[in-house]
Amino acid sequence: MSPSDSLPAFQAVLRSSKHIIAIAGAGLSAASGIPTFRGAGGMWRKYDAMSLATPQAFNKNPSLVWQFYHYRREKVFAATPNAAHYALASFTLPAIREAIAPGSTFTLITQNVDGLSDKALQAVMASAPADTELDQPLIEMHGRLLDVSCTSSECGHVELNAVSPICPALEGTDLQVEAGVLDPDIPVSNLPRCSQCGFLARPGVVWFGEIPLHQPTINRLVDDADLCLVVGTSSTVYPAASYASEVVEHGGKVAVFNLDRSSGDNEADFLFLGPSEETLPRALGTPDQPLVLP
């Protein structure tokens, strides 16, 4: 049976759900100008961008990988949350969610590393009553682009670094996108260093082949969920790609919000095609901007 696109039917399920999770992917941030690096847009300079997001690529050529992540960091600095980020952030507030799905819990599990979901959440919280408390509203399972991590196993220090550029040697390399431009070979000594021990630092994100963060907590949330919202993801990267199926297996419902059809639609109860910044606020019935305090 084909998934339904009925908003009233979805909202009836939403209203009766008690443990709601959302699994977000790159499509959530597309309207904010964050490249998805999948499909036709998967090239950075002359490289397959996905192949640079690995420990092996960093070990082989840390200069090239840091240039790629410097480019991505600069994109994040220039980006702001869109209406879909705010709709999800607003749904985390008990005062708003209680009117939509009484007595429910909600957690956003994002695969994105751009930090925009957290930025939206902070903006929404700033407009909430001072005594508002949230119980784990957001999990960033792949880390954040603005974090840096020491590569020394004896140190392992991780910290937020919002300096632009992160080091002088990377300045301007994000602009060298013309075809055929030679990649600067930046000495390792000039790449970002750990602020604690001085060892080579790496982007503080989870690369392909590494274990996502907060996995035990995510597994518990997936096991308990009776409604899973899949937002802006093609459901191809594991383990996140399996979460919706797991919810279905124990009797929960799945609603997909994507720009186009994908392999993850097969088990969905609901499918809403179109820009998530338009479909998600309408489906959830939540504000697409932070509320303005009087």
TrEMBL record:
The keyword Zinc applies. Zn(2+) binds at C150, C155, C194, C197. It is an enzyme of class 2 (transferase). SUPFAM superfamilies: DHS-like NAD/FAD-binding domain (SSF52467). It catalyses: N(6)-succinyl-L-lysyl-[protein] + NAD(+) + H2O = 2''-O-succinyl-ADP-D-ribose + nicotinamide + L-lysyl-[protein]; N(6)-malonyl-L-lysyl-[protein] + NAD(+) + H2O = 2''-O-malonyl-ADP-D-ribose + nicotinamide + L-lysyl-[protein]; N(6)-glutaryl-L-lysyl-[protein] + NAD(+) + H2O = 2''-O-glutaryl-ADP-D-ribose + nicotinamide + L-lysyl-[protein]. The keyword Transmembrane applies. The active site is at H142. The chain crosses the membrane at residues 20-37. Substrate binds at Y69, R72. InterPro entries: DHS-like_NAD/FAD-binding_dom (IPR029035), NAD-dep_sirtuin_deacylases (IPR050134), Sirtuin (IPR003000), Sirtuin_cat_small_dom_sf (IPR026591), Sirtuin_class_III (IPR027546), Ssirtuin_cat_dom (IPR026590). Its EC number is 2.3.1.-. In contrast to class I sirtuins, class III sirtuins have only weak deacetylase activity. Difference in substrate specificity is probably due to a larger hydrophobic pocket with 2 residues (Tyr-69 and Arg-72) that bind to malonylated and succinylated substrates and define the specificity. Belongs to the sirtuin family. Class I subfamily. PANTHER family: NAD-DEPENDENT PROTEIN DEACYLASE SIRTUIN-5, MITOCHONDRIAL-RELATED. This is NAD-dependent protein deacylase. It comes from Hohenbuehelia grisea. The lineage of its organism: Eukaryota, Fungi, Dikarya, Basidiomycota, Agaricomycotina.
